[in-house]
Design brief:
InterPro entries: EamA_dom (IPR000620), EmrE-like (IPR037185). It is found in: Membrane. This is Putative permease of the drug/metabolite transporter superfamily. With about 300 residues, this protein is mainly alpha-helical. Helix content is about 70%, strand content about 5%. It has one domain. Strand 2 and strand 3 form a beta hairpin. The longest helix has 25 residues. The protein is globular.
Length: about 300
């Protein structure tokens, strides 16, 4: 009889059995999600710090094309990675996700990074609305109250100053709306498609959408620092996406949403400390309403 060898670390979070390392789900879920949120924060900072000669279309094309190239290099040798289930919906999801990213980058480039990310995290409200439209899910009174409070938080963050950042605020809200639609569509796709296929269609459609504007006014990195920033944006976004997808294997959907909302905390700290973002009562009060009610909506959904 072959003896089994099992070792456990001091915390009990990581164990090894017969040479196979496993992680406790209570440790793995938060680890993957918080790591993804931190990497998304780094990506946002890199986008914010890029030279002004890089437009939204340039940034989008580099991110999408670079992500597609890496995925094809990693998984393409095993067969046709574009072979998926429900191709039309994969294409639609790719387009909606691309619009969300382009709108979010526009907002981040215009607004203080902390404000842009907080408004973007209103997407649970739009996800609930699209779920009611597409899947006929009922929206209860508690969810309606949360949605109204989230919209109140958005109204607080909007100063409605036509001479200021209204366009950037509207783009952040548009990004949240399309992100909510994208999250809703993924529910139908993930049943028969792996995360790599879904993400590849996202990158491919994004590259197709941004390519015409990129060709119209091409820009290439001129210094080693610019190359590092562009590849940093590509790698952090790809790694964060894969970590987030893996994290959902270890925690429930609403828990993952709560952990991912920590991106707003990381981004706000980075924006205030390093980028000198302005802070006021509008930011703190509006952020508390949006994040608090977004977390509550995820929890209420898990109770259904």
């Amino acid at each position: 009889m072959k003896l089994q060898q099992t070792t456990v670390d001091d915390s009990g979070a990581i164990s090894e059995k017969n040479g196979i390392v496993s992680m406790d789900k209570n440790f793995a879920g938060p680890l993957f999600m918080l790591s993804a949120a931190l990497l998304f924060t780094i990506m946002s900072i890199l986008v914010k710090q890029m030279d002004p000669r890089y437009s939204v279309w340039h940034i989008g094309f580099f991110r999408f094309a670079g992500g597609a190239v890496i995925l094809l290099a990693l998984f393409g040798r095993h067969g046709n990675i574009y072979k998926g289930n429900n191709i039309p919906l994969l294409i639609i999801r790719g387009c909606t996700g691309s619009i969300a990213f382009i709108a979010a980058v526009t907002a981040i480039r215009i607004l203080p990074i902390s404000t842009g990310v907080v408004i973007f995290y209103s997407f649970p409200v739009f996800a609930a609305i699209f779920a009611a439209i597409i899947y006929r899910e009922k929206i209860g009174i508690p969810q309606i109250i949360c949605m109204l409070l989230v919209m109140t938080g958005i109204a607080v963050l909007f100063d409605f100053n036509l001479a200021g950042k209204l366009f950037g605020q509207c783009m952040a809200l548009l990004a949240g709306a399309f992100a909510g639609l994208t999250v809703t569509l993924i529910r139908s796709l993930r049943e028969n498609n792996g995360p790599a296929v879904i993400y590849l269609y996202f990158c491919t459609m994004g590259a197709v959408v941004t390519l015409p504007m990129f060709i119209n006014s091409p820009v290439t990195p001129a210094t080693p620092v610019e190359w590092v920033m562009i590849w940093g944006m590509i790698l952090t976004s790809l790694t964060a996406q894969l970590l987030m997808n893996q994290g959902f294997f270890y925690c429930r959907g609403w828990e993952g949403g709560v952990y991912m909302s920590s991106e707003t905390i990381f981004t706000s700290i980075a924006g205030i400390v390093f980028l000198k973002d302005p802070i006021s009562w509008r930011f703190w009060f509006g952020s508390a309403l949006i994040l608090g009610c977004g977390i509550a909506m995820n929890w209420l959904k898990s109770r259904q």
